[in-house]
Amino acid sequence: MPKVVIDEARCKGCALCTIACPQQLIKLNEKLNSQGFQPAAITPEDLIKCTSCALCAKMCPDVAISIYREKK
Ligand code: SF4
Ligand code: SF4
User: Fold this and answer.
1) Tens digit of pLDDT per residue, the chain (72 long)?
2) Domains of the chain: which residue ranges?
3) Ligand 1 site-directed mutation target among 27, 28, 52, 65, most atoms within 8 Å of CB
4) Which residues, including other chains, have CB under 8 Å from residue 34's CB and lie 6 or more apart?
5) Residue having the nearest C-alpha atom to atom 2 of ligand 1
6) Is pTM, for the whole model, over 0.90?
7) The domain 3-68: what is its CATH number?
């Protein structure tokens, strides 16, 4: 399973990653982060569907998303 790691503390809740994901897997969390923003989040159920395309990570202006691909 690919791993999408979102650094909540860096996230400013701009939602660009939610738009960038072709599978629409990233949502904004209702619980605010330490900066007072709604941070991006992905559920374990949605993570299974992730293709590790990294579009979300490329889109993030705050470099808050890291993608770890599965070794084949
Ligand atoms: S890596 Fe691609 S499929 Fe996975 S969450 Fe990011 S944009 Fe969506
Ligand atoms: S693009 Fe980056 S800063 Fe914006 S909501 Fe997504 S993770 Fe947060």
Assistant:
1) 779 999 999 999 999 999 999 999 999 999 999 999 999 999 999 999 999 999 999 999 999 999 998 776
2) 3-68
3) 52
4) 8, 9
5) 53
6) yes
7) 3.30.70.20
